[in-house]
Amino acid sequence: MLKFQTATKEDLKLAASIQRRRQIDAERKERIFNPRFRKIGIDKEFLDKQVAEKKQQRELEQARESQLDENLIRSSKVALLLEKEQEEERRNINKEIEHFRQQYQRAEQRRDFDLYDPTALKKGDVDLSFEAGFGQKFAGEDDNAKERSKAQKEEMRWWIEKQKNERMQAEREREEAEKAYEAAVISRDKRAMALDQMERDCRRRLNEATAQFNRALAEEQKYRRHCEALQEEEDKKADIYNHVTGDFLTEAKEQAESTHGPHKPLASRYKGMTADELRVFREAQTQQLKEIEKMRLEEKRRDEEWDRLMNTQAEIADSYQREIDRRRTEIKKKIAEENLELAQQHKSHQDYLNRVLYKNKPTAAFFEQFNRDAR
Fold first, then answer.
1. Per the similarity annotation, which family is this (predicted)?
2. CA distance 93 to 170
3. What is the pTM assigned to this prediction?
4. Which of 65, 94, 211, 270 is geometrically suited to a Cys-Cys bond with 256, CB 3.0 to 4.6 A?
């Protein structure tokens, strides 16, 4: 029979330790030979710094946008104030013009107002010393024609002089209003230009600050990449040196020694057997081959015994099956004879019924006598 070795607790612990070391080596290889994971996957500090820089940049952008919005709102408010002042000045000018017209350009102050004055008859000079019945004053006569003509000329001269003065005064006021309006427009334009210049200066300073920050950030990133490249190169050199000078490549025998005993070396560091160990191993293999051959012969003998036993059992089973078949044949034959005898008896009984007991069969006339009337 085969003899299998039973695994002890020490063997299970050793197998678990070997599996754990293999897993650690596999993870280490994956970490070392994966530059993406080595550079990006574990550099959390650099990623946090990038996130902070992006956040600071977004805050600067938001501050700049807020400043621009405030400047735009301030400019809009100033423009609205200037427009409001201009509208107020225009309204005051119109108000003064209307006041001047009400004071100095009324209808009754015109030189030809007496021609269409509706109250001229009420205001006319009538000499009541003459009566209508005497006929001393006729229609169309004007006793004060010279005085009236002189008065009209004086009045005409006064009106012309007054209109001239009023026109000159209105022209001066108009020129002054236009100058004031032009001064207000110029002041507003200067203010708008100053605000626009302030906005451009603010944008320029913000752009300069952003460009300076970007240059500093680029230089810092360049320096960081340079330092990372140097550190990576140093790590590679150190790793190569450790591998070259380590016990694994130098194949030192002491590295495979285990605390479980001299016959249980560490599988992850084991480099092979010595000549004595190989000789002992070969002798053990030869002994195992002999035992295996002996076991094979024993198994062959046991198989032959089983074959003989199976053949004997098969012969017994065949003889028993033949006996069963013979008995089944006899039973079938006996049943057939009994069935034949029963068939003959049934035939004889049927002949008796047909020839003796039921020999007078009713004819058609017997059945036709029924159902001939309603009763």
1. Belongs to the RIB43A family.
2. 12
3. 0.25
4. 270
Is residue 302 within 8 A of residue 2, CB to CB? The reply is: no
Q: Of 11, 1, 27, 7, nearest to 258 (Cα)?
A: 11
Using alpha carbons only, how large is the chain's radius of gyration in Å? 70
State which amino acid sits at residue 300: K
Neighbouring residues of 352: CB distance < 8 A, sequence distance ≥ 6: none
Alpha carbons 197 and 71: distance in angstroms, whole number: 11
CB atoms under 10 Å from CB of 173, counted, come to 14
- Written as six digits, the tokens of 121 are 């008859």
**What does the pLDDT look like over 336-371, one tens digit per residue?**
999 999 999 999 988 888 887 777 777 777 777 776
Pick the closest to residue 184 from 84, 273, 105, 117 (CA basis). 84
Distance (Å, whole) CA 214 – CA 85: 45
- Asked if 37 contacts 31 with a C-beta cutoff of 8 angstroms, the reply is yes
**Type and span of the H or E element at 335:** helix 275-352
Phi then psi dihedrals of residue 273, to 5 deg: -100, 160
Distance separating alpha carbons of residues 279 and 285, to the nearest angstrom: 10
The stretch 13-39 carries a mean pLDDT of: 79
**What is the rounded distance in angstroms from the CA atom of residue 102 to the CA atom of residue 245?**
115
